[in-house]
Write a structure and sequence with these properties.
By secondary structure, this protein is of the alpha+beta class. The chain has two domains: 10-41; 69-153, Sandwich (Immunoglobulin-like). It contains three helices and seven strands. The chain has helices spanning 13-41, 50-54, 57-67, and strands at 70-76, 79-85, 97-102, 111-118, 121-125, 131-139, 147-153. A seven-stranded antiparallel beta sheet has the order 1-2-5-4-3-6-7, with no helix packed on it. It starts with 12 loop residues before the first helix and ends with a strand. Pfam families: FixH. InterPro entries: FixH, FixH_proteobacterial. This is FixH family protein.
Amino acid sequence: MTDYTPRGRPLTGRKVLLMAVGAFAVVIGANIALVVAATGSFPGLIVKNSYVASQGWDARTKALRALGWSTAAGYGDGRLRVEVTGADGAPVEALEMTAVVGRPARDLADRTVPLAPVAGGYEAEIALAPGNWLARLSVAGAPDFAATARLHVPGVQ
């Protein structure tokens, strides 16, 4: 039989306690860092008060459907292009349209751009980095009109 002799310093209750406290501190620190990063990048709010915003939802939806407009949007060559067609399929012209363009999960990069009328639609020059973008469209004088378009700009991120 071999003789066992411990090497180094002995494992004491104090060392085990410090290891456990250190492990929990690392986990809690990582969780706090992730929570701060998540809440700092996206507030989670689309409207200030969802209850108040929901009160007119049915009326706004009926009014939007009564307009009969449909939209299509795209991005290419540094230009945002939006086409608005009426219920008859003809382009809707002479609108004063704006778009708020930003990232879907953040409001830090939101930019409001006016869209100028062009043949068959509306355009705005805007430089977008690669990735996913969201354009929220609105028309002056038509408060019932609201549309969103998801845009994807290809490239390496």
